[in-house]
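Figure caption, in words: inputs first, then the predicted bound structure.
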Amino acid sequence: MRKIIIGNWKMNPGSLKEAQVIFNDILKMVKGLKNTEIIICPPSLFLSIGDKLKIKNISLGAQNVFEEMNGAYTGEVSTKMLSSLGVKYVILGHSERRNLGETNKIINKKILATLKEKLLPILCIGENTRDNNGFYLAFIKHQIIECLANIPKAQIKNIIIAYEPIWAIGDKAINEATKDEFIEIQIFIKKIIADIYDIKTANTIKIIYGGSVHSSNAKEFIDGGADGLLVGRDSLSPKKFKEIIEIIK
Ligand code: PGA
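Bound structure (2-phosphoglycolic acid present):
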């Protein structure tokens, strides 16, 4: 199956010019790539770097979107606007946005709006910490149930779930996650989806891993059955990103 490698640039780089340089470098390395889909998610303001993007295997994603279609919402960006720029995916529910006050209910509205515009949501979930009593599992279950409320069964195949344990994200990460920790959550996610819908539907959802993915651990998660990876820091360095792509392809 095709593996998905997402580059989440967050609020980087500092200018459109720099963004274009990084993107052009990435474009060069994806030509001829087989069985791998690269999704680059720059800040919304820089989504024009992929103007008239017609190369197979690479798409653009946004890092967020607003749930309403248009109107008096100062500072917001709609799904339609993203569509008009050729965007295909939208990251939703990233822990850094949840930290800014985004709730599961808001994320759910954004997922519904995204699917309505025929864009594909990348739903991020993940716990703050792991405890010995399994409370983190209840936390993840709650996130999934609330974020996927009212999503029709037929749409589940269009959603990517990114398991991103918060303790493993960014340069302040407490620890790196292991393959086994990913596998545990992957099975758990499928079980929750099977309980909400059915087993067949649970098997259509793509589950990827994110949080301090580097070329040193990328293979581990793919070997563990991840459908792909969500890369933060290392996606801003074409050299490091290339190393990850090389390993996966
Ligand atoms: P990181 O970020 O790879 O820098 O840990 C991942 C993410 O936040 O999506």
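Residues 7-237 form a domain with the TIM Barrel fold (CATH 3.20.20.70).
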